[in-house]
Specification:
Blueprint (H helix, E strand, L loop, with lengths): L6 E5 L10 H9 L2 E5 H6 L8 E5 L4 H10 L6 E5 L9 H10 L7 E4 L4 H9 L1 E3 L2 E6 L7 H13 L4 E4 L8 H9 L5 E6 L7 E6 H6 L1 H4 L6 E5 L4 E3 L8 E5 L10 H8 L3 E3 L2 H7 L6 E3 L5 H17 L4 E5 L21 E4 L4 H9 E2 L5 E4 L5 H9 L3 E7 L1 H8 L7 E6 L7 E6 H7 L6 E5 L4 E4 L2 E4 L10
Parallel strand pairs: 1-4, 1-5, 2-3, 2-4, 7-8, 13-16, 13-17, 14-15, 14-16, 18-25, 19-20
Antiparallel strand pairs: 6-12, 7-19, 8-11, 9-10, 9-11, 20-23, 21-22, 21-23, 24-25
Helix pairs in contact: 3-4, 6-7, 14-15
């Protein structure tokens, strides 16, 4: 296994090219071999000429990971996942197989991508302001009692919930059970084939889905169901518009999507914080405008000036860090009564960038919190097996959260990932508590259940070991 050959575990986004990142495309172009599930490889067919391609069918995840590691003897390898490889993807298996083969951990890179639930939220004008739980309804790898317990905790907390793998031809009762756990009048976004040619999105309610079998028939394994909850804001968004809210990732230019680059290059004016404008400064000759003052006034001024550009036939972009649907200020300008159409361009979320930096900590169900005010909720979710990410935490607040966590649970603490001055550490909860971190603007990530630390990286096991021998 030549030491110069690298394994890149790559998130290719939900589907169409415009939601891929430059970093993902570069990783695939550099690889000698590309390994993946056959339908996902079809989504990146434009990148495959000249590559040696290894494909397989559904249920062969372990075989793909083994093949990717074995091929390192012959060249560099890209192991692809749809969406983000840390979200029900190949990151955990890839790292696990590399470890079993005795490979050095620094030869594996995790390339984060835009994940389906944030892409769906952006398309629908949905912004999570406080929290969101992400849960797969497939019980092939996770026992149903564990899934049901997580659903109940999310419902009791009043959290929005993004449900992956809601229904298949042979598995339809889990969605009904999940809908009964949430309130009957909960608004529900149904998003099918997000970012792909057959994309379909519509709003309904959990009650309507329960009562209308024909409505449920429109749901399959390529569909997401996002249930409304506390702190979620529903605005209006368009597929195309002259005013754009653009997610630019966590700070690394390579995390810009193809769509984001295109929008910025075509914008007459770009609005945002100075650090964001500096990141994208050389992509566009358009005017770069920052605003001072409190956040509501800044966002109002940006929106007002962007609409003025649109009225003159130009294009304007308003920047957010990470993804606009995750704890951004985008909701402040998404008033459905507004007369100016807005397109929201998704980006790589901050939690995805931190997860990639830490290894594979979030390959199962997880929950996101906008700040440390929900310390008890975060601890409760972690105790139920969720991975947990807490944004904007201060050192002393982190200690309050960790006091409620199993001291052996792997954690990552990071700040400014992908930017100059990046800080990141991987420790157990107990060791991190003893370290008494100081400072502010941290992202705390508590790994999913069944995870461990090896060679400075977190590896979470999703449950394949219960289905396959490896």
């Amino acid at each position: 296994m030549p030491s110069e050959n690298k394994l890149s575990i790559v998130g290719i986004g939900p589907g169409e090219r415009h939601l891929r990142t430059a970093q993902a495309e570069d990783a695939i172009k550099r690889a000698d071999f590309v390994v993946g599930y056959r339908p996902y490889l079809e989504l990146i067919a434009d990148l495959l000429p000249g590559k040696k391609v290894v494909s397989s069918s559904m249920g062969k995840e372990v075989d793909r990971a083994k093949a990717a590691v074995d091929l390192l003897r012959e060249g560099s390898v890209a192991l692809v996942s749809s969406g983000d490889p840390n979200i029900y993807g190949m990151a955990g298996l890839g790292l696990e197989m590399m470890e079993m083969a005795g490979g050095a951990p620094d030869r594996v890179e995790i390339v984060p991508g835009v994940t389906s639930f944030t892409a769906a939220a952006c398309r629908a004008g949905l912004v999570f302001r406080e929290s969101v739980a992400v849960i797969s309804l497939s019980d092939l790898l996770t026992p149903w009692p564990e899934i049901e317990g997580r659903l109940r905790i999310a419902a009791e907390q009043g959290m929005p919930a993004a449900l992956y793998n809601p229904k298949s031809k042979r598995r339809d009762w889990q969605l009904l059970k999940a809908l009964m756990i949430f309130k009957e009048k909960t608004a529900a976004l149904v998003a099918k084939d997000v970012g792909r040619p057959r994309e379909e999105l519509f709003w309904t309610t959990s009650g309507s889905l329960l009562e209308d079998e024909a409505l449920r028939e429109r749901i399959d394994m390529t569909t997401l169901v996002i249930l409304d909850g506390r702190g979620a804001f529903r605005g209006e968004a368009c597929k195309e518009a002259r005013v754009n809210i653009v997610g630019i990732g966590s700070g690394c230019k390579g995390q810009l999507t193809i769509e984001a680059e295109s929008l910025l290059k075509g914008s007459a004016k770009i609005f945002g914080a100075e650090r964001y404008l500096h990141l994208v400064g050389d992509l566009s000759s358009g005017d770069k405008v920052d605003h001072s003052g409190p956040c509501p006034e800044r966002m109002a001024a940006r929106f007002r000036e962007a609409c003025a550009v649109a009225e003159k036939g130009g294009r304007a972009s308003i920047l957010t860090g990470g993804d606009p649907s995750i704890f951004s200020s985008a909701w402040r300008i998404l008033d459905p009564r507004g007369t100016c159409n807005i397109h929201i361009s998704p980006g790589v979320s901050a939690f995805s960038a931190v997860a990639a930096r830490a290894g594979a900590p979030l390959v199962g169900d997880f929950a996101l919190f906008s700040g440390p005010n929900d310390a008890k909720s975060a601890a409760l979710m972690a105790g139920a097996g969720f991975g947990v990410a807490v944004y904007n935490a201060r050192g002393h607040e982190i200690q309050l959260i960790l006091q409620e966590i199993d001291p052996m649970r792997p954690c990552a603490l990071a700040r400014d990932v992908g930017r100059e001055g990046e800080e990141a550490m991987v420790l157990t909860a107990g060791d991190l508590l003893e370290a008494r971190p100081s400072g502010f603007r941290f992202t705390l990530l508590i790994a999913s259940a069944h995870s461990y630390i090896r060679n400075g990286r977190i590896i979470a096991r999703r449950g394949y070991e219960t289905k396959y021998s490896y």
